[in-house]
Amino acid sequence: MKFGIFGATGRAGKILVAQALEAGYEVVAFARTPSKLGIEHERLSLVQGDVQDAESVASAISGTGAVLSVLGPTSNEPTYEVSKGMANILAAMEGHDVHRLVQSVGAGVGDPNDKPGLFDKLIKVTLKLASRHVYEDMVRVNDLIRASDRDWTLVRVPMLTDEPPTGDLKVGYLGQGVGTRLSREDLARFMLDQLEDDTYVRKAPVISR
C-alpha cells in the first residue's frame, strides 16, 4: 500500500516514516522542509509544501490509498493552522477518493465514551489554561474529521516520550484504565496497524503504555 504521511518531519513523524518503510509500505512524506526528515529510501517520495496550500496537499494525496497524520500545533497562537490544514486534507481525500484517515490528537480532546476522573478533569482544565489555542485547534481537527464521511480513526494520546516501545498497549477511553504516558515508537506502530485493521474505524481510542 502507498499512503501519505503529514507531519513527517516531527519527532513522531520521523519514527512513523521509518517504521512504515521497514514494514514494506510505500510512503509519500509531506513537509514544509523535507530535508529535515533525513531519510532516503526507494519507497519514499518527498513532497514539499504547506498544509495551508490546498494544491500541494492534493498533489501529495493523489495516488495514495490512505493518509496518516501526526500534525500538531507548533505554537500557542490563535492561527489554527492544523485545523485549516485538515480541511485541505479532507477535501483532497474526497477529491481523490481516498477513504482511510488516521490522525493523532491529544487525550484531552473528548469522546462520548470517556468517563474522566478528577485527575483527567484537572489535566484538561490545565491544558485549556496553559495552551488554550493548541487545545482549540485540535478540537477543531477532531470536529472536522468526525463530521467527514471518511473512514477515520482518531488516535488520542497522553504525554509522548522517547522511551523504548512496550509493544503492549492499553487501549480504551479516559477514566477506563488507560495511562498517562506513551512512547512515540508505540504511537507509530499503533497508527500503522490501523491500515490493516478496521476495529477502530470511526472511533477515538486513547492509547498508553
Describe the 3D structure.
The protein has 209 residues and is of the alpha/beta class. Helix content is 35%, strand content 22%. The chain has six helices and ten strands. The chain has a six-stranded parallel beta sheet, sandwiched between helices. A two-stranded parallel sheet has the order 7-9. The two termini are 28 Å apart.
Using only C-alpha atoms, the radius of gyration works out to: 16 Å
| Largest beta sheet: strand ordering | 3-2-1-4-5-6
Question: What is the element string, with H for helices and E for strands?
Answer: EHEEHEHEHHEEEEHE
Weakly predicted, low-confidence segments: none
DSSP strand count: 10
Largest sheet: 6 strands, parallel
Helix content: 25-40%
The coarse overall form would be globular
- In whole angstroms, the N-to-C terminal distance is 28 Å
- Mean pLDDT score: 94
Oligomerization status of the protein chains: single chain
SS-derived structural category: alpha/beta
Strand content: 15-25%
Number of helical segments with 4 or more residues: 6
List the helices and strands and how they pair.
Elements: E1 2-6, H1 11-22, E2 26-31, E3 44-48, H2 54-61, E4 66-69, H3 81-95, E5 100-106, H4 118-130, H5 132-147, E6 151-157, E7 159-161, E8 170-172, E9 181-183, H6 184-193, E10 206-208
